[in-house]
Amino acid sequence: MHIQQLKSQIRFLLVLFILALVLSGATAMPAETELKFFLQHFPSLQPISDLFARVFAAIHITNQNYPYLMYGYDWLAFGHFVIAVVFFGPIKDPVKNIWVIEFGMIACVMVLPFALIVGGFRGLPIWWRFIDCSFGIIGFIPLWIIRNKILQLQELYDDEKLNLFF
Question: How many Cα atoms sit within 13 Å of 119 on the Cβ side?
Fold first, then answer.
């Protein structure tokens, strides 16, 4: 495979990953509005609607009485945005910044025990914890593909350096 073709594929996948992180973060801030929309348009989707109704009630009451607590959701979004920015490094220089991809893969793996353990402490049903785990798995897959493409790119760079000597 040609170097430019690999770089294009890596950049494309990284842009998709960055957009997913930003979108995921952006959805944290309007949680009450999103839950209200879901409950109005999908009221019979059991057991999700039952859980969402309870979560909506808690968020609504919290927003009415203690709106500053929702600042935590804003910081959750900010964390997603900051992490997304880190992935611009591999867009610029994938080989040099492969560590960012590996960091992301480790973070994705860490989602699984975190969701299962902490979600249990917070009383989330197991099926919801598995949904949370799926985000780690779904995030890991493109990062794994990107890492493999970066390793291929590195081999091509190494081959080109060798060809300069022969």
Answer: 16
**Three-state SS string across the chain, please?**
CCHHHHHHHHHHHHHHHHHHHHHHHHCCCCHHHHHHHHHHHCCCCCCHHHHHHHHHHHHHHHHHHCHHHHHHHHHHHHHHHHHHHHCHHHHHCCCCCHHHHHHHHHHHHHHHHHHHHHHHHCCCCHHHHHHHHHHHHHHHHHHHHHHHHHHHHHHHHHHHHHHHHC
Q: Which two tokens stand for residue 103?
A: 């960091």
Residue 53's identity, in one-letter code, is A
Nearest 5°: phi and psi at 106? -65, -45
Q: How many residues does the chain have?
A: 166
Tokens of 35: 């839950």
In a structure prediction context, what are the per-residue pLDDT tens digits for the chain, which is 166 residues long?
A: 699 999 999 999 999 999 999 999 999 999 999 999 999 998 888 788 888 999 999 999 999 999 999 999 999 999 999 999 999 999 999 999 999 999 999 999 999 999 999 999 999 999 999 999 999 999 999 999 999 999 999 999 887 776 665 5
